[in-house]
Amino acid sequence: MSRLHTSAPPLASTPQMGFNTWNTFKANHNESTTHEIASTLISSGLKDAGYTYLILDEGWSDYTRTASGFLQSNQTTYPSGIKPLADRLHRLGLKLGLYGDSGILTCGFRPGSWGYEERDANSLAEWGVDYWKYDNCGGFQAMTHAPQERFNTMARALMDSGREIFYSVCEWGFQFPWHWGGGIGHSYRMSGDITASFINETGCPCKTAYCLNTGYAGCSVTSIIRKMREISVYQEKGHWLDMDMLEVGVGDMTVYMQQTHFAFWAALKSPLIIGADIRSLSEETLEILKNKEIIALNQDPLGLPVHYVEGVSEEGSIQVWAGKLEKGSVVLVFNEKSYPQDVSVSLKDLGLGIRGKVRARELWSGKSWGSNASVERTLQAYQTLVFRLS
Ligand code: GAL
After folding, report:
1. Which of 160, 275, 290, 375 is the most buried (most CB within 10 A)?
2. CB 5 within 8 A of CB 240
3. Is the CB of 135 inside a 6 Å radius of any atom of ligand 1?
4. What is the mean pLDDT of the chain?
5. Annotated catalytic sites, by residue?
6. Rounded-to-integer distance, Cα 267 and Cα 271, Å
């Protein structure tokens, strides 16, 4: 399939960062929660840390189109409509995202855009929308028309709408979108929905990227990381593989689990879209989400992900991932066990071209050291240490 974009569009030159309503609110959000989220993005420092998209997932739209067939906001929960909301967010330095579907209905049975692509893309442009998350439910059409066709029709409509709109393809990894999603979207999902669980699945039976029964929802953090072992090679600047919204600060993950979750999403160059209720985050969680050095891995201009280093990892026990940055490189060491373990990793064995001495800094502790070309540490249960090398 030919690429629609020949070079990385400036919109997606680094993975997108923001907030999405789904993990916390499901479809139950409204104008006042959205205004609260917008002001919290600013007062918490999250906006300054880079989280600028405020994305309204399922729930913003009405159950019916207008009498003349246009998409409209939910008349009860968003009575003022979308344009005033977009204007207000823009005045605050934020950007507005909305959710839609490539079938006749969204997953929540609101109108999808199948057959209405051009009209709906024009509505988004007129309202001043900056981001469009496009889902894969929709019934009949979802089964009879290939996702490439459905998602591409909307890509073209957005491009013709006269406004630059970030296009986030949400196809759950069903038809292996790492082989085609990059030619269509600025980002594309590679798995069923994430759940607020580090290790236990509530659905998501597939443990590998090419397994056919991907499940639709309920994937744990570690299961999504596992799939990236096979497909991180497809990660590409401007067309990001999307590991789904962050569950950092949702559920009851320990601080080490939350750090691991965030470090992998950042270093694998996934979009960083917060799913937690930012109005009530603990200080510890906020610090994780705002960690400048971890975010810098994600936003590194080179745009290359880390890869799993099989030779120095130990199945079910220690995972080592490594990759290049514009300046230097990064190594993640993850203790997959529920108890502490001592690890020793020789930095020369990671394919990073390291020969002699290196300078290293562990990003969560902020501790730097020089000369030693190996890492020896005790890792706590489910902890990931992140070493930036130069
Ligand atoms: C799913 C999608 C989720 C969320 C949900 C809303 O298909 O993967 O991220 O958007 O629909 O119904």
Report:
1. 275
2. no
3. yes
4. 94
5. 135, 193
6. 10
Residues 266 and 258: their CA atoms lie apart, in Å, by 12
Query: Which residue lies with its CA nearest to atom 9 of ligand 1?
Result: 193
Write out the DSSP string of 160-182. Answer: TTTS--EEEE--TTTT-GGGTGG
Q: Would you give the DSSP letter of residue 16?
A: -
- Token readout for 238 is 């401007």
Question: Mean pLDDT, to the nearest integer, of 312-325?
Answer: 97
Closest residue by CA, ligand 1 atom 6: 58
Query: Do residues 372 and 387 touch, judged by C-beta distance below 8 A?
Result: no
Residues 162-213 have pLDDT tens digits of 999 999 999 999 899 999 999 999 999 999 999 999 998 888 888 889 887 7
What ranges make up the beta strands (E) of the chain?
17-20, 53-56, 95-101, 131-135, 166-169, 187-189, 193-194, 217-219, 240-242, 272-274, 307-308, 318-324, 329-335, 341-346, 359-362, 367-370, 374-379, 384-389
What is d(CA 128, CA 61) in angstroms, rounded to the nearest whole number?
16
**Burial of 35: CB neighbours in 10 Å, binned 0-12, 13-18, 19+:** middle
